[in-house]
Amino acid sequence: MLTELWDRVAQYITENSEISNWKEIRQNYAYYSYMAFLCLTVKDLRDDSGSSTLYDIAGKYGLGEPCLLNYIKKIPGADRFAAEIFDLINGRTITGIDRIYQAYLSRDYHVAGDRVEFAEGKNSRDILGSYYTQENFAYEITKKAIDDYCFDKGKIPNLVRIADLSCGGGTFLASAYKVCKEKNISAVFYGYDVDPIAVLITRARMAKALRGTEYDFHIALGNPLIKPAREEDVVGMFKMAASGRFYNSAMGSSLKENIDIAVGNPPWEKIRFEEKKFLGHYIDAEETGTKEARKRQLELAEETNHAFYKMIETDYEAAKKGIKKDRRFCFSSCGELNTYALFTELCLNMIKDGGLAGLIVKASLVKLPVYSNFFRNILTEKSLYELYMFVNRRKIFNIDSREEFSVIYLHGTKNKGLRIALNANELEDLAGQPKTEISYSLLNKLNPGTGMIPNIKSNEELQFLIRMYSGRRTFGEQYKDCKFGRLVHFTNHSEYIRKEAGGGYAPVYEGKFLELYTAKYATFEGMAEEEKYKGKVSAVPIKNIDGDKYPQSRFFIQSNVWERLKRKFDGEYVIAWRSLTSATNRRTMLATLLPLIPTCQSIQLLQLQTKTEMLRVLAVFNSIIFDSIVRLKMAGLDLTQTIIRQLPMPEEERFKKVILFGNVEATIDSHINSRIYRLYMKDSRFEDYFKDIEIYRIAEERPRKKLIAEIDCLVAMLYEVDGRTLQKIARSFDKYYSKKEVESWFQLSTTGDAL
């Protein structure tokens, strides 16, 4: 049926649109899609319905306001289109319309020559944030919210007001009705959404479920994040949404105040106009792949199309400015605006004293430093009382299986502590899942700069972090004079950068060139031009890191500009690491010594006062102990100085301890530096670096990885990690160390001394 729906909608868009008019195509896509689902919802409510009774039945069940239904009737070819849709669905059982709509959004409309077609894509779904929640999961989240509310009241309340501010297909509101009916609780249900079809489906779903009962519902079209600029105009809002202008001031919603319970799964989208997605509906992807290409296409666009583009772009910019000034979003309107954070604070402001909210949000809300002020607020105010941490391994949502999300419960009063269910897997029985109590003081100890939730998935990982922080200073506390930086930015400094080498220009190093203890990992040498400059390019690995080949850059910056950019660093060398990384990578922290040369934004730099400090920090950074800590602290993909400053470091005095290691008695400093020297001895850029460093000769030849493993063992001693724990940590890096390597190379006594 879906293929036939797509084909029919595409046919009517083509027949009733000027194929070169972007706005007309966008509106007709919305109009005929809405009409198709109006037919489906009416058919679901009344099996004997047809095109002749469509609007009467829709009006009877409150699927659309009279003025809106009258507007729909006037859409070109409306009667014929409705008749064809009913011919298509007659004789079929229509169930799960919200799921049908999800599948419908799995394809996008786009212009193909002289007609409109549907093809694989998710631009429309992404813009709307339409990733609906599974029925059983929504029921469990809602049931717990209502159970907690009743428990707090000590009785079954006379009336409960329940709202979902981004209701989608109505899953949470339908679940709320089901729970209230089971508990014999009187309730009124409120729902809001920017998508007219989502509003339609939710109205139909609630009308069908509540038919013959005394329960009441109010589902409205609009954007709750935007305050209404004037009296709401239903048809005007519908037309604005049909044009894709979801953030126009006309879409502002008047929300019900003093809600008892807020539930839902707010969209996880950034509030930003994405021109590539916009243009993808009207122009072939090959012609919009780069910023320059998109700029060229917009210059070629007809005046009406360019005006349409600017309208939507202006809506987004105005909305962002308005939200940042809106007192409802004092804590969540930070950084690049994310809808899940804004909706969370909005829900908290809507619920009255004694009310609560149960929401699904991205785990970033409780992990990323950008939300530290918001998180501190909901924690210190004791609003956040329960938190369930999930990874999408069971494909609860049709997104990346590595995506992390959380179910959070917020209270309108200050009478609860915080309990966390780590690595939650079960969708059922949320209340019965094991939880750990975490205090605000403990979070401040583990994340002193932000107070956020670490990237932990078990109580064992939590206890490991606590041990690592116990009695140790953070990097920021220990190295207060450290200089950090990211120097060359390909966009911000584009006017000073070119693709050709030459006099007066210096090569720019990229993160791809770096690995553990080397900046000779990869090169762009020998690559074709089109390969070298395409998006998400991979450099060619250098086969012999200890050979005489050095990375060849693809970008070059004016030398005089580089001299200006590097002025804050006064030493000749820095520690550089890949900024763009992930906790699931083979290794997360990849650091190396590097001469102070131009490096792009994918590389972070630091510089310390002495070589001794630099070598100590380098050894710690590249160790599996430190890497494990990084993985438990890093929620996103950017290993920033903010994260580094918060990490626990071994005390400087421990490096001076004399131990027997590898049949040599020396300080830990000397053991580490002797191995680091071996790792860099074939790189001519470091010939003079080790001249005044205390090292000894390592007689036998050994592979680089074994030298790195020996440094891992030495750093484990600095952190007072016992042999059993060290081996367990080494085994967790199974993409780097093989089982045989772990058994052979990681041998410490239970006291942390070398065997």
Explained architecture:
It is a single chain. With 755 residues, this protein is an alpha+beta fold. Helices cover 40% and strands 15% of the residues. It contains 29 helices and 22 strands. Mean pLDDT is 90; it is low at 749-755.
Question: Number of DSSP helices?
Answer: 29
- Report how far the terminal alpha carbons are from each other: 69 Å
Largest sheet: 9 strands, mixed
Widest beta sheet: strand line-up: 5-4-3-6-7-9-8-10-11
Shape: globular
Low-confidence stretches: 749-755
**Amount of helix:** 40-55%
Please state the structural category: alpha+beta
**What is the mean predicted local confidence, pLDDT?**
90
Instruction: State Rg.
Output: 30 Å
**How many beta-strand elements?**
22
Q: How much of the polypeptide forms β-strand, as a percent range?
A: 5-15%
Summarize the structure.
This protein has 755 residues and is α+β, with helices and mostly antiparallel strands.
